[in-house]
Amino acid sequence: MITAYVRQGDRLAAFALEPGAPLPEGTLWLDVLRPAEAERGVLGTALGIDLPTKEDMSEIEASSRLYLEGEAAFLTTPVISRGETGRLDLGLLTFILTPAVLVTVRHTEPLWLSIYAARTLRHPNLAPTPVDAMLGLLEAVVDRAADVLEMVGTDLDHLSTQIFAEATEVEAGVLEAGRRGDKRRQVVRKAKRRKAQSDQLRSVITAVGRAGDLVQKVRDCLAGLERLCAFATTVAGPRMAKEQKVRLKTLARDVHSLVEHAGFQAMQGSFLLDATLGLINIQQTTIIKIFSVAAVAFLPPTLVASLYGMNFHHMPELDWQLGYPLALLLMVVAAVVPLLYFKKRGWL
Q1: Can you tell me the distance from the alpha carbon of 20 to that of 39, in angstroms, rounded to the nearest whole number?
Q2: What is the pTM of this model?
Q3: From the CB of residue 127, how many other CB atoms can be counted at a distance below 10 Å?
Q4: Rounded distance, CA 172 to CA 177, Å?
């Protein structure tokens, strides 16, 4: 599908270009969505260029994404777009800048591009030349990346509050248990019943992972934009007016600042993930500690039972009338004494 944005006096109009139809006079921008072979041939004949295929656009080498063919500059970069599942994903967008017209080739349908196109139709002065149209599209990409980072930052702040509020609650319970040992068993029982809390921490891990995935996608997009801006400054610089050069430099600075911010958010996501895993580890350690204390407490009674389970003939206690109650009493005392000691030390 080819959409031609044509300047008609002081207006800008959009037309669907059918295969075989000539380019309208005054064409400023050609937006090519999932070009068929016939459409590739039409544009190749009309503009004297070869449109890159989807495989060509997917090449990761800079020399395959940023290059010159005659007077046409080919600039390919990853951009934020909605995937087939409705979630944010990366798509590839190729700018082909010729002296007369701008061509964009894409296989996704990012919302920001449609918004920019509609705004340009309402305000034709936003894109008086192909270079201005390309700069406007690049600014829309950067704005979208900034919006995603802002959304991720809000999510990370919310998750941070949620995680550390949970950690504070656990720490308060431990400290209170240390000050008042008689309440430790209640705290332990309460911890065992906090299945909902464990489910919440698992959902936090999922949310942090999703935020990290979004940040990584934005970083890939910004890395492509950094290379594109550097290449465009070198290649298209001589064709640009002073105002256009200023816009491109400003765009490059914005991209650089967003790269640093995305790096900070990536570190923040890693920190929150480590904090969540640490909190889960504390809960698991508390449970294991309970089992360890129980094993130690019941070890002396097991020793007593093992002694009186021996099959020796000369054991005086076997003939005592109070031998059995004495053995039971020894086992109870052997279990209670360690528990009282642990409680006194604040381990329970």
Answers
A1: 8
A2: 0.71
A3: 25
A4: 8
Do 231 and 100 fall within a single domain? Answer: no
Q: Does residue 238 sit in the same domain as residue 162?
A: yes
Q: What residues pair up with 15 in beta bridges, in sequence order?
A: 4
* 263 and 197 in a common domain: yes
Residue with tokens 């777009």: 81
Verify that 149 and 277 share a domain, yes or no: yes
Same domain? For 149 and 215 the reply is yes
Q: Is the pLDDT of residue 256 over 80?
A: yes
- Residues 55, 52: Cα–Cα separation, whole Å: 8
**Domain total of the chain:** 3
The amino acid that residue 292 corresponds to is S
Q: Is 340 helix (H, G, I), strand (E, B) or coil?
A: helix
Task: Retrieve residue 5's tokens.
Answer: 């944005």
Q: Do the Cβ atoms of 269 and 204 come closer than 8 Å?
A: no
Beta bridge partners of 97: 73, 102
- pLDDT tens column, 104-152: 888 888 888 888 888 888 887 887 888 888 888 888 888 888 888 888 8
Positive or negative torsion for Cα 37, 43, 49, 53:
negative
Does the residue 311 lie in any domain? yes
Would residue 133 count as lying in a domain? no
Contacts of 245 (CB under 8 A, 6+ apart): 233, 237
Question: Which residues touch 82 (CB under 8 Å, ≥6 apart)?
Answer: 88, 89, 108, 109, 110, 111
Torsion-angle region of residue 275: left (phi > 0), alpha (psi -120 to 50) or beta?
A: alpha
Token pair 């296989």: residue: 107
Which residue intervals of 128-183 are DSSP H helices?
Answer: 130-179
